[in-house]
Design goal:
Radius of gyration: 20 Å
Order of helices and strands: HHHHHHHHHHHHHHH
Helix content: over 70%
Strand content: under 5%
Structural class: mainly alpha
Number of domains: 1
CATH superfamily: MFS general substrate transporter like domains
Low-confidence stretches: 1-16, 395-399
Shape: globular
Largest sheet: none
Number of strands: 0
Mean pLDDT: 85
Length: 399
């Protein structure tokens, strides 16, 4: 396989260069969070005395808080610069998992968990997307987005390892392991240079972008993408647990699916740099919707395995061109790239807040709807990915 020079120079440069330090730190961070991410919703579900509405409401509050403070936080993140902002996020995540570990001791730690969870996302994701926007190159952006799979390679094995640690040592051992790896992730960034960004939006201006009629198509596309990812990250693991899938099997299934997705991301990245990008996005969106429909009918661990493999591969087909469209739109805004990225973060997390809050209320009032009804919603949201590209022409051709 051909490794483009401009891509490899970013991913495999010597350790003394700042971009290399950033990629290494993010790869280690992904390994840490990959060990715990699919088990975190289960931990909170057990903490809330097996209440699904309370668990969903917990995540809704974090998403809502992030969306609310993002407009103000954008100035702080820009002043710190991508590398230092990501470094701060690591320590916020450290605090988040420490207080998660202490939750059974006292419910008073719940407020700290919510605040640190929202701040951790605020300091990481805008900085991460800003970095990829600045360092990716026009004409090769899709391939470089596909090659971000390299940063997520540690994430492939970490769910399997996390399941093993959880089985042997419990949540205490898992959280301590995550904390140790997060500390290691911070080390490469201590010597990174501080590169400031410019962020001009005030609170009202940032929210005006969200509700602007000129942005309606992108707003719906970003909202759908954000909600679908949240369903996959928080509701799907809960459903696997309710199906009595053991944590070790959950980890193995997730790792196997991520292997398939990572390999496909490299192929999808090449297509995303051609005129077929819109076609790939549309096909991937349809197949992602179909995979969610399949997930609605799973009953056994083997069903879960097959459905999740199909989902992860389909999601990679949709995700790479979707992200490529996003980074190109951000890059074209040049000086306003930071404002555009933060607008996207507000849209994603505000929509997650609304969906998780509404879904929690529905399950509280009508529990017969069941957790898997969210999968049908995810199928519909998947189709909305196409809004960021070129919608397929469904009109019949004249004969």
């Amino acid at each position: 396989m051909h490794f483009p020079t401009d891509v490899t120079s970013r991913l495999f440069t010597v350790l003394g260069q700042d971009i290399s330090k950033l990629y290494i730190a993010v790869a280690i961070r992904n390994f840490a969070l990959g060990m715990v991410m699919i088990f975190e919703p289960v931990y909170l579900y057990l903490y809330f005395d097996r209440s699904i509405p309370a668990t969903l409401l917990f995540f809704a509050v974090i998403f809502g808080l992030y969306a609310f403070i993002a407009a103000w936080g954008g100035k702080i993140v820009a002043a710190l610069g991508p590398a230092h902002s990501i470094l701060v996020s690591f320590f916020l995540y450290l605090g988040y998992f420490v207080f998660l570990l202490f939750l059974p001791i006292s419910p008073f730690f719940l407020g700290a968990v919510i605040l640190l969870g929202a701040l951790g996302m605020l300091f990481f994701w805008p900085a991460f997307h800003t970095d990829l926007t600045r360092f990716s190159s026009a004409g090769h952006r899709g391939e470089e987005v596909g090659w971000t799979a390299v940063m997520f390679l540690p994430y492939v094995v970490s769910p399997l390892l996390g399941g093993i640690i959880l089985t042997k040592l419990g949540y205490e051992g898992l959280f301590v392991s995550v904390l140790m790896v997060l500390l290691a992730a911070a080390v490469p960034l201590f010597s990174a240079r501080r590169v400031k960004e410019e962020y001009e939006d005030g609170f009202l201006q940032a929210w005006k972008r969200v509700f602007s009629r000129t942005n309606i198509r992108e707003t719906v596309g970003f909202a759908a993408n954000g909600i679908e990812i949240a369903i996959a990250s928080y509701i799907w693991p809960l459903y696997m647990f309710l199906l009595a899938v053991s944590v070790s099997i959950m980890g193995a299934i997730t790792s196997a699916a991520l292997v398939a997705a990572s390999l496909f991301m490299l192929y999808a990245g090449k297509i995303a740099d051609t005129e077929d990008r819109g076609w790939l996005l549309n096909v991937g969106a349809v197949w992602t919707a179909f995979s969610w429909f399949l997930k609605y009918f799973v009953h056994t661990p083997f069903d879960v395995f097959l459905a999740h493999i199909i989902y992860r591969t389909s999601r990679a087909a949709a995700g790479v061109p979707f992200q490529t469209f996003f980074y190109e739109k951000a890059a074209r805004r040049e000086r306003e790239a930071d404002e555009y990225i933060m607008y996207r973060e507000i849209v994603i997390n505000f929509s997650r807040f609304l969906f998780f809050g509404l879904f929690a209320l529905i399950l509280f009032l009508w529990p017969e709807f069941g957790l898997k009804s969210a999968f049908l919603a995810a199928a519909l949201f998947s189709l909305a990915f196409m809004l960021l590209g070129k919608l397929p022409n469904l009109r019949p051709r004249a004969i």
